[in-house]
Design goal:
The complex is a heterodimer of chains A (530) and B (282). By secondary structure, chain A is an alpha/beta fold. Chain A has 19 helices and 13 strands. The chains are: A alpha/beta (530), B alpha/beta (282).
Chain lengths: 530, 282
């Protein structure tokens, strides 16, 4: 499966459906494919509903932006096994409730119904809002407890008394010694500015700083120290009161946990669907049509990585139109003619459909596959495993074959230039044997791109080819981009193969700039051997 | 000097321990609070060592702390955001002071997180100025904070003042480097080299001889010592792609005469403030 995902560059595609909430992103991390049509249809329905909503809200961009805004603001819920929630956890609960409710209020009734939005935590939310707090902050306000309010009032009074004493102290120092602290904790005073009395003063602490300066700090008076002690005790009382408030709120949150989890699951499903719909809208994706037949029909299928390469080279991208029946399909074609892209597009569309995503195609009718296999080049992997390129492919196929023999629920098998690194005669023989065996398997859809034109025409195996070069011996312009030059003369659609075409390798090599002498010799050798 | 902090993001950084950075930072907070709420942050303290800077907050000031430290604070704090990650003593949160008093600051998990927090509080226009108690001996973090300026603190005594002066000269020279005028982006063009990441002494050795100009992102990407920088500057024009304003140097002098110190820092002398807590002789 990993090979197919990498081959189709599916994770890059799927990354565009990244949800907005942190828990949505956690869920999105795990790639789940679905194997049940009803389940997938339900997921597509969700996407469709939200696509319609996005369409409707085009005239209300602010409301559309608010939906995303509130999704983004939804925090993770705290772990719910604990007895007490701390202030941050209660903050999260409060922020969650506020954003969940506001999001729900922005949604039309039918959307709420489809996703199961409901809200009956007004009382908890109101309690978390006590004391005219902002909706997305949490503070143990005085309103939670009269005792807390009293203690805090006393703290404020004590602080004011302390401040007044400090100010008086500073004033006295200024009057007696001329040192103006102006809010500074200490001053550096030149030795000659310090009178002897300053060293003995109960108002000052004087210490040498260096050979010329003394560090002078105000000293708190006895009354201030007594008040500071009182202040400390009050702070402890405040903490006790706050703990009691936290316990009371925690009890309320505990009682509300089943509802909170319900909201969490609802909004998680909504978030995932919102991301899918946003992606479908931005990329112009289409709802796949699932059926129980054995065929795959692709109309104007697109493979984004190839599209961007085409754009880079100024080439018009040719979307894929294809029908693949169960059993085996062989795809021939010119080098650089698009065989691999056919396989990659098919893999991408199928993976997307089974991941619940809409697909980059004008139409995609398909079935459910239980297993996916890719056999072909995997950059450098074989070297690490001590295998040659051929050895690696054989190992891949043997694994696929075991699963294919055991599987009755459908396998999509993609073979990209299988056995191209061994002798062509033997490779063709192996491939023929494989194709013959797969042609009997009605529950498998195998697509095999190859240059082995001498493959026997096995019954029930379809032979297609990329239309390929429209014209050979095309004069190439010096300094021109060879890729776009070749693309100009290439037709990328799939047609039935009549067995009379080659891979145009010599023509392509010529267009890529192979020395003319070598081209001529190659043509001569080729004409002698066919 | 404190006027220059108003409405700005200022990082207080310093050379070595005991540079007077944190003391100056406390005084700067006190001054900045007169003009409105302040975002007060630190870098490099996880709260577990017990050495987290304690600052006096006023109502509406904003800081990063943890629940245990918020509970231990004299100030009363309103939680306005839960931050991802946790310090050694609990989860980090962004808090706003409801009641004045002392509170311990905790550093964010990384500079990027602090940059996001600053972005958030600026978007919501929650504070007037932002002050950051930066790391000692490093200025790298300053570049992670967009639109920031920095202030460099150091303590110089008879034993270390030449080393301090050398460092100040280097920082001053780096912050004075010209801005990359033509914004050349290629790796090597017409004798110019655009360097991504740090400029180190080993890297300097690998620069081809035909290169006469190099650009680095900010001055904090230069990891050369004073002597190597001076040597490199003789044959290379070094420019910056982004400028980070240097507000100045605050030097706590001990047993070193100001004139003697100033003689050792000719290029930085106009940007130096000595002993900000010192009062004139009566």
């Amino acid at each position: 499966m990993k090979d197919v995902i990498a081959y189709a560059e599916f994770l890059d595609f799927r990354a565009k459906a990244a949800p907005e909430t942190p828990f949505g992103r956690d869920a999105h991390e795990a790639l789940n494919l679905f194997f049940d049509i009803d389940q997938l249809e339900a997921i597509y329905d969700q996407t469709d509903t939200l696509l319609s909503l996005m369409q409707e809200l085009q005239s209300e961009p602010a409301r559309l932006a608010l939906i995303t805004h509130h999704l983004k603001r939804l925090p993770r819920l705290p772990a719910h096994g604990q007895r007490i929630f701390d202030e941050i956890e209660l903050f999260q609960v409060k922020k969650f409730l506020h954003n969940y409710r506001t999001l729900m209020e922005l949604l039309p009734v039918e959307v709420r119904r489809l996703f199961g939005f409901d809200y009956h935590s007004q009382s908890l939310e109101a309690h978390l809002n006590l004391g005219r707090q902002a909706p997305e902050t949490f503070y143990i306000a005085d309103d939670y407890s009269a005792e807390l309010a009293n203690v805090r009032a006393e703290i404020i009074e004590t602080d004011a008394q302390l401040q007044a004493l400090d100010a008086k102290n500073i004033c006295e120092i200024k009057e007696q010694y001329g040192f103006d602290f102006q809010g500074r904790l200490f001053l550096l005073v030149p030795k000659k500015s310090l009178r002897d009395s300053a060293f003995q003063s109960h108002l000052l602490s004087v210490e040498p700083y260096d050979d010329n300066l003394y560090s002078v700090r105000p000293v708190k008076c006895a009354a201030a120290l007594t008040l500071a002690e009182k202040r400390q005790k009050l702070a402890q009382q405040e903490r006790v009161c706050e703990e009691l408030v936290l316990e009371a709120i925690a009890r309320e949150v505990h009682a509300e946990l089943p509802s909170l989890l319900e909201y969490y699951n609802t909004v998680l499903i909504f978030d995932l669907a919102w991301a899918r719909a946003r992606m479908a809208r931005e990329l112009g994706l289409t709802r796949p049509r699932l059926h129980t037949k054995n065929s795959i029909r692709i109309t104007q299928g697109r493979f984004a990585p190839c599209e961007s390469i085409c754009a880079k080279h100024g080439i018009t991208y040719s979307p894929l139109d294809a029908v693949f029946e169960s059993g085996a399909t062989v795809i021939f074609g010119s080098n650089m003619g698009g065989k691999t892209v056919v396989l990659q597009t098919t893999a991408l569309l199928q993976l997307a459909a089974q991941a619940g995503l809409f697909v980059p195609a004008a139409g995609f009718e398909t079935r459910i596959f239980r297993a996916f296999h890719y056999i072909g080049e995997r950059r450098g992997n074989h070297i690490h495993q001590g295998l040659s390129g051929f050895g690696m492919e054989m190992r891949q196929f043997i694994n696929a074959w075991q699963s294919l023999c055991a599987d009755t629920d459908g396998t999509l098998l993609l073979m990209d230039e299988f056995a191209s690194t061994t002798s062509s005669g033997e490779a063709e023989a192996i491939l023929a044997a494989i194709l013959e065996a797969i042609s009997q398997k009605t529950n498998t859809c195998a697509l095999c791109s190859t240059h082995f034109h001498r493959l026997p025409r096995i019954p029930n195996v379809r032979f297609l080819r990329m239309a390929g070069l429209k014209q050979k011996n095309v004069p190439t312009k010096p300094d021109a981009d060879p890729v776009s030059e070749i693309a100009q003369y290439m037709t990328y659609n799939l047609i039935n193969d009549d067995g009379k075409h080659s891979s145009d390798a010599i023509a392509i090599a010529q267009m890529l700039g192979l020395d003319e002498y070598l081209v001529k010799r190659a043509e001569l050798f080729y004409s002698e051997c066919i | 000097m404190f006027d220059l902090l108003n409405g700005r993001i200022t990082v207080f950084t310093g050379f070595g321990k005991g540079s007077g950075k944190t003391t100056l930072f406390g005084a700067a907070v006190n001054e900045a609070q007169r003009a409105g709420p302040v975002g007060i942050f630190t870098i490099g303290f996880d709260g577990a060592s017990g050495k987290s800077p304690i600052i006096q907050v006023k109502p509406k000031d904003i800081l990063i702390t943890t629940v245990p430290l918020a509970r231990a604070a004299d100030a009363s704090l309103d939680i306005i955001e839960a931050l991802p990650g946790r310090s050694a003593i609990g989860r980090l949160c962004l808090a706003r002071s409801v009641r004045a008093g002392s509170a311990a600051l905790v550093g964010p998990e990384h500079f990027g997180q602090l940059a996001s927090v600053i972005d958030l509080i600026r978007q919501k226009n929650l504070v007037n100025s932002i002050l950051i108690d930066g790391a000692v001996g490093r200025v790298t973090h300053v570049s992670a904070l967009p639109d920031s300026q920095f202030l460099y603190c150091a303590q110089a005594d008879a034993a270390n003042f030449r080393r301090v002066a050398e460092n100040i000269e280097l920082i001053s020279a780096l912050s004075n480097l010209p801005l990359d005028a033509d914004g050349y982006r290629t790796d090597i063009t017409d004798g110019k080299l655009h360097i991504e990441g740090p400029l180190t002494a080993p890297m300097l050795e690998t620069i081809p001889k035909e290169i006469t100009q190099i650009s680095i992102e900010t001055f904090s990407d230069c990891f050369l010592d004073a002597a190597t920088f001076k040597r490199a500057s003789r044959h290379l024009t070094i420019s910056l792609r982004r400028h980070i304003p240097l507000l100045g140097f605050v030097i706590a002098l001990r047993n070193v005469k100001r004139e003697i110190f100033l003689d050792t820092v000719p290029s930085a002398s106009s940007r130096i403030i000595f002993n900000p807590f010192e009062i004139e002789a009566a």
